[in-house]
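Standup notes, structure subgroup. Blocker cleared on the heme C input:
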Amino acid sequence: MTYPERFAVAIPVLTLLVLSWSIAGCQPTANDAALPIETAVLTHAPEVPPAIKRNHPARVVVNLETQELVQRLADGVDYTFWTFGGKVPGEFIRVRQGDVVEFHLNNRPDSRMPHNIDLHAATGPGGGATSSLVIPGQSATFAFKALNPGLFVYHCATAPVGMHIANGMYGMILVEPVGGLPPVDREYYLMQGEVYTAGGYGAPGLQPFSWDKALAESPDYVVFNGAVGSLVGDKALRADVGETVRLFVGNGGPNLTSSFHVIGEIFDRVYSEAGSVVSENIQTTLIPAGGAAIVEFKTQVPGDYIAVDHAIFRAFNKGALAILSVAGSPDSSVYSGRIDERVYMPEGGAAQSIPGTAPEPARATTLAERIEFGERVFAANCVACHQANGQGIPGAFPPLAGSDFLNGDKGRAIQVLLNGLEGPITVNGNTFDGVMPALSLSDEDIANVLTFVYSQWDNSGQTVLPSEVEAARK
Ligand code: HEC
Ligand SMILES: [Cu+2]
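Run returned:
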C-alpha cells in the first residue's frame, strides 16, 4: 500500500472507532477491552498521586500487595501491622469517574492471614470483598467501574473484620469527577485509625492486639498515618504562606468517629463526608469510621498548625496529632505576634518511652495464672482464625471448642503449636485442609495458651507445662 492508500483505510477505521465510542456515550463496561490501559501510580501517605489530566476514561490497573510486618507505633513501642502496601494507611489510589479499575490484590507468601478488599468506591457485592479473598501467596483480580466521584475508604473485610482493620488494613481511593478537582498548591493524605494494645499507652516492646479493648471500643492509641508522631518534626507536612492546601482525610476506625480540626486554621471549603456538597468556613468536621472528608484552606501566616481529632484526649494523650509547618513572612494584619510552638506541644504529644518499665515476660506460677496468661496469648494469636469462642469457621478453620483432635492427644497439640500444621485433618468428623502457620511462640506462651484452650468450651481441662513444650521442641 502506498501512503495515501493507507490513509484512506486508516481514516474510516478511526472514524468508526470514534463513532462507536460516542455511541457508547463514553460508558465503558467493567469488562470493556477497548479502553486505553494505564497502570495506577500508588503513593504512601502523606503523598498523593498526581492529578489526572485525561479527559476520557481508561482501564486503570491497580496492583496492591498485602503485607504483615512489625513497625514502630510509638517511640519504643512496636506493633505487628497488617497493611495494604507495607505501610499504614494503605497506598493512595487515584482514578477518574468512569474509569474501569482492574484490581489485582496480591497477598505476600510470607503473610500468615488471608485478606481481601472492600472498596467503598466500588458498586457490587462486598465492594469487591467477595471477589478478592486471597490466602498467603495468592493473587486475585476483579474489575469495577468508578461510577461515583468522591474520596472513598477501602479496607480489608476478612473475618474477624474489626481485627484486620484495627491492625492497619485501610486506605483510600480518590475518584476525581469528570473535569477534575480544582487545582491547589499542595495535597496531602492523612488517615486516622485506632490501635488496641495489650499494654497501655507507651508500654514498651512489641505489643499484641487486645481483643477486649477493641470490643470495648477503648483504644490505647488514636493515630494519624499509623504511628504516634508520624507527621511531626522533620516529617511535618509543609506549605508556604499564600498556598492553598488540600487534605484528603480518612478515618479507618475501626470504631471511633473523628472530629477533625486544624488548630489555627479555618477550613475555607469542606467536601463533607467527601461527597459533592461543599460547605464553607468550617472549624471542625466529622469523619465517620469508614468515611472521609476533603478539606481545603489557604494559609495566611507562618507557623506550626496542628491537625487533631478534637476529641482532645485522643490528640494529646493517644497520638492523634499532626503538624503542618507553614513558612513565609508574617502578616500582622491577620495575626500579630509570634506563634510559640511550645504552647501547642503538650506532654504526650509525641510518645515517650518509659525507661526502666519493660516488664519481664510473665511466668505463670499457678494454674489460674497460666489460664489468665494463656487467654492473652489466645486473643493475640489465635482468635483471628479460630474465633473468640474457639468455634472456628466451617470449611476454613477447625474448632478448638470440643475438638476431638485437640483433646485426644496433648503431645500432638503441642507439635501443632511448635511447627504449625498443614494437610487434611479430621476434627469432630469434618475435614479441614488448611495451613496453620508456625507462630514462633515461647515455651511459656505455648503452655499457657494450650492450658487456657483446654480449660474452656467443654474441653478436657488438661494442663500443659513449659517443660513439656521444651521437651517436645527437642
Ligand atoms: C492463620 C490462621 C491460624 C492461626 C492464627 C492459628 N491457627 Fe490453629 N489452625 C489453623 C488451621 C487452618 C488449622 C488446620 C490445619 C490443617 O488443615 O492441617 C489449625 C489447626 C489447629 C489445631 C488442630 C485442630 C483442632 O481444631 O484441634 C489446633 C489445636 C490449633 N490449630 C490451635 C491453635 C492455637 C492455640 C493458635 C494460637 C496460638 C492457633 N491455632 C492459631 C489456622 C490457624
Ligand atoms: Cu486482612
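Discussed briefly. The pocket of heme C (ligand 1) is lined by residues 112-113, 381-382, 384-386, 397-400, 403, 405-406, 413, 416-417, 421-423, 425, 427, 432-437, 439, 449, 453 (CB under 6 Å).
Next: hand off to the docking folks.
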